[in-house]
Design goal:
disordered C terminus; N-utilizing Substance Protein B Homolog, Chain A; 23 helices; 14% strand; 463 residues; single chain; Alpha-Beta Plaits; eight-stranded mixed β-sheet; alpha/beta; 3 domains; four-stranded antiparallel β-sheet; Rossmann fold
Length: 463
């Protein structure tokens, strides 16, 4: 589209608001567009892409914006627009000083900048990654995180095969192909208007990142089983699990937010599933949950986390999160995991998952849980995926990385209850130790945290 000069000012206004980091960038952007209804679809795209480019490359752009004319926010805005719309598109609306500055910046080789500037990651995140990767791979990961994510779909086998979906997309003029690992995954080119397609209205697919689909492959629910999606949210993984069960058995989608469960209802109606039971709960100790203790075959715990694996979609998170916020999350994640584990019957499987790339939220939480629960054992994710005919080997844990697998960053551990827990006497069951009471309170807070913007999840359209 031909760029209009007023879009520079609109972009600058939105960027200034987003850079306050008072809330999620996508929520602030959505509110801004509601407040400016005259902006067309293409114009909104120009503004949003420029703002998110600044969030992705904030360290680099701030370094470049140390020179130049105008306010710091104006300079960042111009850099964002140059990166997305192109320098020639904005040249007619610039002063001579601004045009000369951008011409100078355009000649700078990004590889000549200090590595800290090139990474566009806070130092504390880089340090945490240094325990896992060498410098060269951190550079690769940072580059992948700073690039927008592709658009992945999950074909709904209740309604259509992946091949049928690909044919329908091709007929609609949309390019797409199979994802590398997920058996029902489709990756499309660009950002087409999918909601207008008959295939979408008829429930042939849902938008879901391939990594999120692979989490469901680890749960591997069978027909006729009782399954719980412990923190269901808007239900993207719930629908995938229900389809894997061929709409048989019973699948509970628990959440404490009626608003989030309401988003599941139209998706469920399109899906053709009849085995899903959305359940509004007040906490993980709700009587509806207690009745299921020891009766469930499979549980998925998609725990609230820092969301740092979703930086391709939510680049503001790397600037909004901190070592302190991560330190607060880890014990809450352990508490939620502990509460969900009570539901499993003997031989039952639990998948603990996050969209974080930090060991403190992932392996460390699982280790703490296993140390305290000898009746649980880690099952190799490699073996589970092989059983599902998924050709992916990341070891005992599922560890997905944007630069290696072209997915969001995901972690998952498969845990199995090996034996029945010890039965309490009636007297003991009626008593609650201070430690148990504290754990219950912490878990309830954690469930609530999962519904707040600061506790990040995979993007709602890609969960």
């Amino acid at each position: 589209m031909r760029l209009h000069g007023f879009l520079i000012g609109q972009t600058e206004t939105l960027l200034a608001e987003v850079l306050k980091f008072a809330g999620p960038a996508d929520a602030i952007t959505s509110r801004f567009f509601r407040e400016h209804p005259k902006l067309g679809h293409a114009e909104r795209g120009v503004i949003a892409e420029a703002v998110f480019a600044v969030l992705r490359r904030r360290t680099e752009f701030a370094h470049l914006a140390e020179s130049g004319a105008g306010s710091p926010t104006r300079r960042l805005t111009l850099l964002g627009l140059m990166a997305t719309a192109g320098r020639s598109a904005i040249r007619p609306f610039l002063s001579d000083a601004e045009a000369n500055w951008l011409e100078h910046v355009a000649k700078i080789d990004p590889a000549s900048l200090p590595q800290r500037v090139q990474l566009n990651l806070p130092d504390w995140i880089v340090k945490s990654l240094e325990t896992r990767f060498d410098t060269a791979e951190i550079v690769q990961l940072a580059a992948a995180l700073n690039y927008p994510a592709p658009l992945d779909l999950r074909s709904n086998p209740i309604k259509a095969s992946r091949e049928e979906l690909l044919r329908a997309l091709s007929t609609a003029g949309i390019e797409g192909g199979e994802t590398p690992f997920a058996p029902n995954g489709v990756r499309v080119t660009g950002k087409p208007a999918l909601s207008k397609l008959d295939a979408f209205k008829d429930g042939w697919f849902e938008v879901q990142d391939e990594g999120s689909q692979l989490l469901c492959s680890l749960v591997a629910p069978r027909r006729g089983e009782m399954v719980v999606d412990f923190c269901a949210g808007a239900g993207g993984k719930t629908l995938a699990l229900g389809a894997m069960m061929r709409s048989s058995g019973r699948l509970y989608a628990f959440d404490i937010s009626d608003r989030r469960l309401a988003k599941l209802k139209p998706r469920l109606a399109r899906s053709g599933l009849s085995n899903v039971n959305p359940v509004l709960i007040d906490s993980e100790h709700d009587a509806k949950i207690k009745r299921l203790i020891g009766k469930i075959d499979r549980v998925l715990v998609d725990a609230p986390c820092s969301g740092l694996g979703t930086l391709r979609r939510n680049p503001d998170l790397k600037w909004r999160q901190s070592p302190e916020s991560v330190a607060e999350l880890a014990p809450k994640q352990l508490s939620i995991l502990t509460s969900a584990a009570r539901l499993l019957k003997r031989g039952g499987r639990l998948v603990y998952a996050t969209c974080s790339i930090l060991e403190a939220e992932n392996e460390a939480v699982v280790k703490q849980f296993l140390d305290a629960h000898p009746d649980f054992a880690l099952v190799s994710a490699r073996d589970v995926l092989a059983d599902q005919r998924v050709g992916l080997d990341t070891g005992d844990y599922l560890s997905l990385w944007p630069h290696r697998h072209a997915t969001d960053g995901f972690f998952a551990a498969v845990l199995e209850r090996r034996s029945e827990p010890k039965l309490k006497t009636k007297k003991a069951a009626a008593e609650t130790t201070p430690e148990e009471s504290a754990a219950a309170t912490e878990a309830a807070d954690a469930i609530a945290k999962a519904q707040q913007p600061e506790a990040a999840e995979p993007d709602a359209t890609q969960e």
